[in-house]
Amino acid sequence: MAFRFYLTTLPVFANAFKGEMTYYASNRNPVLGSCGQLSPVTGDFVALSKGAMENGANPNKNPKCGTTICVCGPGLQQGYQAKIVDTCDDCKQEDIDVNEELFGKFAASK
């Protein structure tokens, strides 16, 4: 299941873009992401596409790692803040991959 979403850096909404959101089950098996840390077990977090992350020679030093973004869906009363922790290798330019916890919030609002 994929949802359209709007992604903005906080607090500036001028940089909004939209794409599709998918999820991965990192809650069960935390993985080492491109930011050099194990994915959190709880909370809202996201992996951006390769193009959006623009990783350099050492992705662990990417300034986007740890940045909080707002993920919003059409028709939602609110957006959710999520921390960038990884790169999504299979995502298209404006797509994101989120943890199950965040994805569930969007599924529940449908």
Description:
It contains 2 helices and 6 strands. The chain is mostly beta strands and 110 residues long. The mean pLDDT is 79. It is globular and about 40 Å long. Helix content is 13%, strand content 35%. The protein has a 6-stranded mixed barrel with strand order 1-2-6-3-5-4.
Question: What does this entry show, briefly?
Answer:
The protein is built from 2 helices and 6 strands, in the order βββαβββα. The chain has 110 residues and is mainly beta. Strands 1-2-6-3-5-4 form a 6-stranded mixed beta barrel.
The share of residues in helices is 10-25%
Mean pLDDT: 79
Distance between the termini: 11 Å
**Percentage beta strand:** 25-35%
The class by helix and strand makeup works out as mainly beta
Number of strands: 6
Radius of gyration: 13 Å
Largest sheet: 6 strands, mixed, barrel
Write the H/E string, N to C.
Answer: EEEHEEEH
Shape: globular
How large is the count of helical segments?
A: 2
The strand line-up of the biggest sheet is 1-2-6-3-5-4
Low-confidence stretches: none
Key terms:
110 residues; mainly beta; 6-stranded mixed β-barrel; 6 strands; 35% strand
Q: What layout of secondary structure does this protein have?
A:
Layout: E1 3-9, E2 17-24, E3 45-49, H1 50-53, E4 68-72, E5 80-88, E6 96-99, H2 100-109
Parallel strand pairs: 2-6, 3-5
Antiparallel strand pairs: 1-2, 1-4, 3-6, 4-5
